[in-house]
């Protein structure tokens, strides 16, 4: 059954038109008003912190409150602080050099709000992945329509009521619904469309945006590999791999998806990962800090991927725990040497399952990574900086971390985004501000300017100026 009726489409269009009109009335939202908007986002995040944790717990069944605090609430508070601190300098016009034959004059770039922007967000970090692009769009002076995920209804309702406390609907509006609503949402002629979600839906969104020539940012997924070099102490790998993989039960776009270790080291890495995760969650089944899988559909998909690898002869290592009952929890799992053609090695896993395979040297590892779609993140484990750099040079990914996982996400001055099938465009910090603004080129000349000398009738002065 469709989750959309004609009334909803009309309402969505009406909100869009109201935002358009409001934007026309305030094309250059003043600095002080943008600061108010940023402060409102920060204040809402802090004020509703407990409600955000409750909503995430209700949507996932079990969602670690500490992980919600870390990855949704604290992240947003610090992103808002960063934006507030730097907005003034981001908004300044940027002067550029004027070539000698065009002098005198002033050339500069004005960063201007694009207008009404659409944001579509996923379920895995349902608060942060909606609020973070909203923050960037508001800092840029835009109006925002958000379509959050249908898989996290409690969080979507909460965000709608939170935002209504501080923003009129003609400034920030939330449209609730599933794929059909999403499809109608993407048909509106936004000034920018910002999509976070799967590569499959990213293609659909991109086509819809193209109909209106709407510029689009695609924050997608993919299989983010870990490449380990010979000089890395394999017994230490689990310390960081376990955190990267089992945070939010692996439902993280930049979670390490699979690991390629040197020959003879996969078992050590697997055992150190299981040992670390066992220490983190002595009984993962009852531990409130070990998150559940978001829906029955996702739960069944992950279990069937593990079973497929088991039937194909791969060795499965799992952390010990009691029976999770109906909690939709999957034991932290490591799979040794699954076949390359198994779903675990073909699809983005997006759950608490980590395949570990061996490579035949770094050239082989890079070749195998490069044979797949370009990943969102790539992790290099190498003691030697030279080795790490050679892996960076031999591969392409949206972002990368050396000797750790995921931490690049929290460095606000780094652009966050994918490349190829893992996305295009970026945000965070100034990159988010740039995404939602248009770089308008301005060249100011005096009333009489020597450029008149290159106008017809062409003659000696023209020849002199244009001589190559
Ligand atoms: P999804 O693509 O299923 O859904 C994302 C959003 O798109 C939801 O709001 C959904 O309702 C909407 N949608 C679904 N069909 C649509 C359509 N036809 N037209 C318009 N909108 C539609 O993704 P998901 O399952 O929520 O998220 C998981 C994926 O997102 C993973 O691949 C993950 O790697 C990726 N992801 C990427 C990032 C990133 O920052 N790059 C962050 C989180 C998740």
UniProtKB/TrEMBL annotation:
InterPro entries: Ald_DH/histidinol_DH, Ald_DH_C, Ald_DH_CS_CYS, Ald_DH_CS_GLU, Ald_DH_N, Aldehyde_DH_dom, Aldehyde_DH_NAD(P). The active site is at 219. Residues 10-442 form the Aldehyde dehydrogenase domain. Keywords: NAD, Oxidoreductase. Belongs to the aldehyde dehydrogenase family. This is Aldehyde dehydrogenase. It comes from Hyphobacterium lacteum. The lineage of its organism: Bacteria, Pseudomonadati, Pseudomonadota, Alphaproteobacteria, Maricaulales.
């Amino acid at each position: 059954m469709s989750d959309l009726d004609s009334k909803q489409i009309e309402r969505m269009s009406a909100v869009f038109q109201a935002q358009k009109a409001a934007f026309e009335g305030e094309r250059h939202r003043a600095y002080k008003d943008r600061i108010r908007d940023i402060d409102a986002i920060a204040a809402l995040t802090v004020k509703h912190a407990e409600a955000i944790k409750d909503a995430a717990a209700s949507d996932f069944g079990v969602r670690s409150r500490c992980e919600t605090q870390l990855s949704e609430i604290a992240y947003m508070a610090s992103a808002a602080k960063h934006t507030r601190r730097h907005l003034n300098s981001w908004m300044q016009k940027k002067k550029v050099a004027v070539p000698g034959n065009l002098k005198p004059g002033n050339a500069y770039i004005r960063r201007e709000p694009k207008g009404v922007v659409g944001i579509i967000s996923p379920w895995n970090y349902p608060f942060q992945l909606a609020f973070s692009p909203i923050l960037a769009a508001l800092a840029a002076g835009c109006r925002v329509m958000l379509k959050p995920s249908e898989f996290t209804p409690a969080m979507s309702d909460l965000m709608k009521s939170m935002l209504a406390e501080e923003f009129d609907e003609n400034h920030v509006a939330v449209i609730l619904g599933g794929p059909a609503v999403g499809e109608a949402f993407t048909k509106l002629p936004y000034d920018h469309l910002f999509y976070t979600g799967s590569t499959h839906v990213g293609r659909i969104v991109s086509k819809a945006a193209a109909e209106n020539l709407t510029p689009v940012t695609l924050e997608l997924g993919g299989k983010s590999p870990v490449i380990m070099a010979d000089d890395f102490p394999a017994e230490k790998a689990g310390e960081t791999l376990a955190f990267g993989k089992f945070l939010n039960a692996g439902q993280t776009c930049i979670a390490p998806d699979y690991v390629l270790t040197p020959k003879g080291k996969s078992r050590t890495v697997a055992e150190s990962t299981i040992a670390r995760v066992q220490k983190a969650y002595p009984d993962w089944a009852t531990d409130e800090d070990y998150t559940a899988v978001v829906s029955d559909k996702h739960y069944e998909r992950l279990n069937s991927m593990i079973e497929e690898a088991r039937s194909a002869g791969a060795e499965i290592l799992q952390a010990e725990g009691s029976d999770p009952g109906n909690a939709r929890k999957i034991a932290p799992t490591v799979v040794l040497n699954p076949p390359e053609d198994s779903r675990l090695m073909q699809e983005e896993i997006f759950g608490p399952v980590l395949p570990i395979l061996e490579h035949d040297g770094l050239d082989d590892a890079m070749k195998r990574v490069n044979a797949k779609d370009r990943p969102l993140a790539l992790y290099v484990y190498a003691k030697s900086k030279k080795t790490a750099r050679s892996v960076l040079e031999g591969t392409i990914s949206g972002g990368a971390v050396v000797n750790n996982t995921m931490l690049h996400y929290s460095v606000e001055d780094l652009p966050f985004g994918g490349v190829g099938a893992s996305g295009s465009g970026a945000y965070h910090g100034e990159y988010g501000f740039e995404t939602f603004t248009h770089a308008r080129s301005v060249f100011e000349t005096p009333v009489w300017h020597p450029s008149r000398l290159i106008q017809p009738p062409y003659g000696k002065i023209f020849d002199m100026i244009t001589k190559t």
